[in-house]
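Many introductory courses stop at the sequence. We go one step further.
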Amino acid sequence: MHIVLCWELGGGYGHLVPLGLLATHFLAQGWRVSLLCHDAPAAQRLLQIESLNYQSVAHAPAPTQAFPHSWNYADNLWRNGYWHQASLSANLAAWRQQLLALAPDVLLVDHAPSALLASQDFAIPRLAMGMGFTLPPCPPSGPMPALPPWFPLPSAALRAREWRCVTHINHALSTLALAPLQQIGDIFSGVKRLLCAWPELDHYAHRDEPELRWYGPLSDQTQHPAPPWKALNHPQQRRAFVFMDAQHPMLTTVLSALAQRNYHVLAFVRGPSGPVSGPISAPNVHYLTARVCLWQTAQMADCTVLQGGFGSLYPFLLRAVPTFVCPLHLEQAVLAERLRQRGLAAGVSHLSAPTLVAQHLNAWLDEGPKPGLTQASFAARYSSALGQHTAQRLADECVKISLST
C-alpha cells in the first residue's frame, strides 16, 4: 500500500510534525509513504525520517496583496492565493500532476485543500486531518459558519464571500476537466475528516456533525530534551515559559513583565530558521537554543505566555498550567478567544493595542496566575491523552478506513 501525505497551507511545525508522526507508524506497518509539500528539503531537515519519500510540488505564488481579516474558511483560501486565478489554476494542475505520478492507494492531507480538489475523481480513500480551523463545519446547505467570535456576521455576506472563491475554484477545475463545486464545503465531499482536537479546543463555537470523531491533538514531544530549569540553578524562583515568534510586537513587553516579577523565564523565541536570542538581557531570562519537551516543560512551569499555536497550547492546558495567550494572527486569536470564553486561558486579541496588552498581562501576573475550575476540570478529563497515543489510534483508524473502502 502506498499512502501519500500532503501539506499545503500554514506555517510553523503544526502540520509537518503530526504528518511525520503518522508516517512513522505507517512505515512501521510496511507501507510505502510519500510526503508531498511545497518544500521537501525543509521537511526532510525537520522530520529526519528514513524511508520517507519527500516530494516537492511546484508552487506558483500569487502576487503580494493585503486583505482584510477572514470571515470564514472561504476567506482563508482567498487570502492564501485563491484570489489570483492564474496562480490557483497552475497550483491545482501541479498538485494533480504530482498526485497522478505518485499513484497513491490512500491520500491523507493536513491543510491541503488543493490536494483534495485535484484528487476529487480519484477512486481511493481520501482523508483529511487537522484542528478545527483547517477542518471547518460543513453544513449540507448554506455557507460555512463565520470564524470571528467577536461579532455576528450576516449569512448573505458569508455566502457572497464563499461564492467568489467557488467561482475561481470552478474555473481552475474546468481546465482539468473536473466537476465544479456547488459550495465551498464540497472540497471535503467524499473525504473522511479526522479532527485532531477536542471540542473545548475547537475554533468554532459548536458543530452539528454527530458523525465526526474527536481524536485529540496530535504531537510527540518525547524526542526533545527536558527544559534546563534545574541545571540553571534558580530553585527558589517561580518558573515561566514563553513561546513566541521573534517578530511578535509584544515579545519585549512579555519578557520584561516576567523578568521584573522575578520569574525564572525560559523563552523559545522562534526565528525564520530556528530559535534565536530575544530582545532583552536579564539574569533570570534564558533563551533556548533548541526545542524542548513541552510535556515536561508544562509539568515544571508555574505559568506560561504563548503566542497561541495549537500544538504548543494543549500540553499546558492538560497540566492545568495558568496560560496567557498573546496571538499574532487570526487563527491564534480565534482560538485564544474561544479558550477565554470557555475559562481555559487568559489572553488578548491580535488587534489589541500594545498598551492594552501590557495592561491585561500585568494585571494577570499581579493577581498571581492560577488555573480556574474549568481548566482544572479540562485537565482531569484529558490528562491521560498523550500525542503519541493519539498518533497510534489515528494511524490505526486510517488503516482501517483504507482497508474497508
